[in-house]
Amino acid sequence: MGELGEFALIARVIARLESGPDVVLGPGDDAAVVAASDGRVVATTDVLVDGRHFRRDWSTAYDVGRRAAAANLADIAAMGARATALLIGLGCPADLELAWADGLADGLRDEAALCNASVVGGDVVRSDVLTIAVTALGDLNGRAPVTRAGAQPGDIVGVAGRLGWAAAGLRLLQSGVSDGQLPDALRRPAPPYALGPVLAEAGATAMVDVSDGLAADLGHIAEASGVRIDLGLKALRTLGADGVTDDDLLTGGDDHALAFTIAGDATLPDGCIQVGTVSEGSRVHADGEQITGGHEHFGASD
Amino acid sequence: MGELGEFALIARVIARLESGPDVVLGPGDDAAVVAASDGRVVATTDVLVDGRHFRRDWSTAYDVGRRAAAANLADIAAMGARATALLIGLGCPADLELAWADGLADGLRDEAALCNASVVGGDVVRSDVLTIAVTALGDLNGRAPVTRAGAQPGDIVGVAGRLGWAAAGLRLLQSGVSDGQLPDALRRPAPPYALGPVLAEAGATAMVDVSDGLAADLGHIAEASGVRIDLGLKALRTLGADGVTDDDLLTGGDDHALAFTIAGDATLPDGCIQVGTVSEGSRVHADGEQITGGHEHFGASD
Fold first, then answer.
1. What is the pTM of this model?
2. Which stretches of chain A score pLDDT less than 50?
3. CB contact under 8 A, A129 and B129
4. At a CB cut-off of 8 Å and minimum separation 6, what does B68 contact?
5. What ipTM score was computed for the predicted complex, to two decimals?
């Protein structure tokens, strides 16, 4: 992108985008305007750094875009909301190929489209380290946000989505195996976005996006809600795959499943399975043993 | 920050923040929830990179935070909106001092407080290049957004805020002069946030935040509105200061003044002065001569 200035690159990226139903004013002005139907907006932000959160030799630009969008869209779903918009901050090395930026924009656009959301704004600057900052906005449509603090003794614990796939995929990629469903799962997570609002309507009492590993993320619910969570490995294994270990299921991140608690007599929506129970006490246990351990993005220490 | 993990650093930063009146759900969950009173939210994002958009040997962490927030809060004001919330993505080198992160958080918080806005969320990751991505949200309170496309022949052009101060301050800092009002203006811009909504109420037909230089930013209005803009240097000079050249007034960025067009018979709000006129035609002219030239952040080419 050395030969192209910031304005030209922004214009080029904007030309690849499409505006969905929630966009009141799209890209190109000082700021965008997005619908927030019930007078509130849900907002979250994530930063991805080349070599730490993605690797250009492992993933195409398109897949990096899909994955960067997914991480944020899943956070919106985990509040029980539907995503409406993304804003993208891009730090570009001077030697980044234009085709790479195009692919990234296409990936961001296409992942957002899964939620009917649009890329509405962004900023492109020069940086020695390729950096992608994504902000997602969402709409609760009148519902209360589903926080981490509402789990109650007597609730059950459910999960929707993949567990451990990305962690197992990372191990394969690190050992030189780049093809197959597990490496693909790391490159392109498949969060169950639509189930976020469905679970909120169904009465989920607490919900998180599994980005740092199931044990760590349910640990946030256990701590914020003041409860004990017991998981059963047999049920968890149904969310894994060939090559996914029990440790991957419990501590692998980056699949962006939704983990939630809900009243014990609730009927789980299609696509969700029960994996545990909530009781008085503290911390997360699997088959009776207290578990710890979190997630390391690509083996880095952040 | 090497000895502190991501969660610990986020918790430390959150502890320094305060939640204002628009925060429905503050930091600490998968996403925040912010009021959007009229069913729409204004959103913008900017990325600042160490050595390009700020220099740690020229500015304190606190001032970098003030300036990073200001750049985004001014974009919200330029739509005619009041800022409600900031989200911060921070890429931190391992050797960044904790006191620096604390200072940054304090600066972001205090600049946001000038708009009654709050830092509601963020992400902290490891990066070899200190990078600050800021997203600002805002509320139009029922008004139409003031875009770049509404200027009409017969309108006048007005400016609120400083012009050329930061550019002159940059020149002084580059020559080794670090004290004085001009270097301070680069370190800490003072956008006239409150005038954004006031100008929208007063009937501003187009408005921009002057971040890339007055000529370039009014050029966006001239192009989007299909009009010619004529500026008078005599009036512009009243917004400069000792040491600010005519070129600084026209092409200096980073002061984040508000530039706007409004009907010729409008009464300008206090704090605004008329600097030009709008007519049929194209491009921006000063004292009759067409001007070009934009802004270089710290001499970099982005």
1. 0.94
2. 295-302
3. yes
4. B46, B48, B54, B104, B107, B108, B132, B134
5. 0.93
